[in-house]
Design goal:
- The protein is mainly α.
- Among the domains are: 1-62; 67-95, no CATH class; 156-189.
- Helices cover 71% and strands 3% of the residues.
- It has five helices and two strands; from the N terminus they run αααββαα.
- It has helices at residues 7-32, 38-59, 67-70, 103-131, 138-198, and strands at residues 79-81, 92-94.
- The protein has a two-stranded antiparallel sheet with strand order 1-2.
- Helix 1 runs antiparallel to helix 2 (38-59).
Length: 199
């Protein structure tokens, strides 16, 4: 039985299980695709897996850790295990009744736990109130805000165009004013020349 618990046996068992599973999967792949040799590979893999499952059923489960070897008496419910001593062997004693508890210390600890539970309850209440908030109209409000921003951008673009047009209009008014000034001086010259002719 010690061979079954050895590392070599565990490694060999895992190796054979992995290889058998790989053969079964490859046989299934070959069978699905109707490739040659599929039936043989699938039969070999299934036989290996059946043998392994039979072996695992016979061997039964095993414990991963054997702490009772380090702490003798650990598997005894009523024993009390002391920490390891310098020689590496633990002392096993029969359990003694618990000492009397200090009521004030217990009350302080319970009071602290109660405060924490109350703060958790408040936090959960806040989360519940947030859950009950109705966000059904939020989508429509977001669409409305999006339309508003779109129209605002269009208005800003139109305003920019209007400023450009105003600038051009101002330049044209300045040119017209300059031309009117020139016409006034020409008209004044004509009037003074006509008055000279009459004299």
């Amino acid at each position: 039985m010690s061979f079954v618990k050895s590392k070599g046996f565990k490694y060999a068992k895992n190796f054979v299980i992995g290889v058998g599973a790989a053969v079964v999967l490859m046989g299934a792949l070959f069978k699905i695709n109707s490739w040659p040799g599929a039936s043989t590979a699938l039969t070999i893999g299934l036989c290996v897996e059946a043998g392994l499952f039979l072996l695992l059923g016979i061997l039964g489960p095993e414990k991963d850790y054997y702490w009772e070897k380090l702490y003798p008496g650990l598997d005894n419910y009523n024993s009390k295990v002391d920490p390891l001593q310098s020689n590496g062997i633990a002392n096993v004693q029969v359990a003694e009744p618990l000492p009397s508890l200090n009521g004030e210390i217990v009350e302080q600890q319970l009071g602290g736990m109660l405060n924490e539970l109350q703060s958790m309850s408040k936090s959960l209440g806040s989360l519940k109130s947030l859950q009950e908030v109705d966000f059904s109209g939020a989508g429509d409000q977001i669409k409305t805000m999006s339309n508003f921003y779109t129209q605002m951008n269009e208005a800003m673009a139109n305003l920019s165009d209007s400023l450009e047009d105003t600038k051009v209009y101002k330049e044209q008014l300045g040119a017209l004013n300059h031309n009117l000034g020139s016409l006034n001086s020409v008209y004044g010259n004509i009037l003074s020349a006509m008055s000279n002719i009459k004299n």
